[in-house]
Write a structure and sequence with these properties.
One of its GO terms (biological process) is ribosomal large subunit assembly. One of its GO terms (molecular function) is rRNA binding. This is Peter Pan-like protein. Pfam families: Brix. There is one protein chain. By secondary structure, the protein is of the alpha+beta class. It contains eight helices and eleven strands. It has a domain of 230 residues: Rossmann fold (3-Layer(aba) Sandwich), CATH 3.40.50.10480. About 9% of the residues have low confidence.
């Protein structure tokens, strides 16, 4: 009997404890925004992968493994969003023209609709780089948001700025830790083309005043082979640790107050370097609605008639998905009756 009791105690200790994510930031006191990323209608394989890339980008305050079915409508997601504290929806759709991205504030809107003329997946961005970088723990903290060029436009650009600023948690510049700033989302608006360049980078800090050979030697976890050398200086100069050229600029140098890595020590200076991790998008704002994917049109790039045709196309895509779901359920019921 004593042996069985010990086994039961071990089994109880191995059960993991599920902890809910905090809804309020303990530093700023503001509500932490959360998001759902899902699609409406049928999507090709590349856009489906783009949806997964967006979920990874919005981590950690998003549902990474959100399961959606064809029979689910917008009201189903809205019913679940309330108890879970979800504040924003990101919807991908594929009408007949171009892919669309809708960013909506729950539960009453507004909703911003963007066209996606061009996009590249995170895998495509990593494939184009010689040394892609995606370390562990990169997506444990929310990214920083940087907006450029939105101040020279009208009211629709101001509303776009407010929407994107509220998607990610706010930071306090006096209490934020540099170790938590690992990613950055950059949105650059071009007033001539009326296009928005959407980029996602990882932040990397490198010490200033340390040669590249020493830095790579410290970061390398392998024990070097010094049998053929007589001094450590011979290893540093002859081991082939790259050139001495440094691409650091004074404008990108910051002073550190905490230890961030094995080389960056307080109070030394480090240079900030950005490496793109994707996805990469080109967006064009075409419509702003008052409500959640409905209501009056505040702004329309192509006029009221085209905005109505886009709405009808989206409705057709959703109705087709509903009809397919109903047919599947009828087939399942017929098989059960047989």
């Amino acid at each position: 009997m004593a042996r069985l009791r010990n086994i039961k105690r071990r089994m109880q200790m191995k059960v993991p404890v599920v902890r809910k994510q905090p809804t309020v930031d303990h530093v700023t006191g503001d509500k932490i925004p959360k998001s759902f990323v899902f699609s409406r209608g049928k999507l090709p394989g590349s856009l489906k992968q783009l949806e997964l890339d967006f979920r990874k980008l919005m981590m950690p305050h998003t549902a990474l493994r959100l399961k959606e079915k064809k029979r689910n409508n917008l009201k189903d997601f809205l019913d679940v969003a309330g108890p879970m504290g979800v504040t924003h929806f990101l919807l991908l759709s594929k009408p007949k023209s171009l892919p669309h991205l809708r960013v909506a504030r729950t539960p009453h809107g507004p909703t911003l609709t963007f066209e996606i003329p061009e996009y590249a997946l995170a895998a495509d961005v990593a494939r184009a780089q010689t040394r892609p970088r995606c370390p562990q723990g990169l997506f444990t903290k929310s990214p920083l948001i940087v907006l450029s060029g939105f101040g020279s436009g009208g009211q629709h650009l101001k509303l776009t700025t407010i929407m994107f600023q509220n998607i990610f948690p706010a930071i306090d510049i006096y209490t934020v830790k540099l170790s938590s700033c690992q990613r950055i989302v950059l949105l650059n608006y071009n007033s001539d083309t009326k296009l928005i360049d959407f980029r996602h980078y990882s932040i990397r800090l490198q010490p200033v005043g340390v040669t590249r050979r020493i830095r790579k030697f410290v970061h390398n976890h392998k024990v070097p082979d010094l049998r053929s050398l007589q001094d450590v200086s011979d290893f540093v100069t002859k081991a082939g640790y790259g050139s001495e050229s440094e691409a650091d600029e004074e404008s990108a140098i910051v002073s550190l107050s905490t230890d961030l890595s094995r080389v960056n020590r307080a109070p030394t200076k480090s240079a900030i370097k950005l490496q793109e991790i994707g996805p990469r998008l080109t967006l064009k704002l075409v419509k702003i609605e008052e409500g959640l994917c409905s209501g009056g049109v505040i702004f329309s790039e192509y006029g009221q008639e085209n905005s109505q045709t886009e709405a009808t196309e989206d409705k057709k895509a959703t109705t087709e998905g509903k009809n397919e779901a109903n047919e599947e359920t009828k087939d399942d019921d017929g098989e059960e009756d047989d």
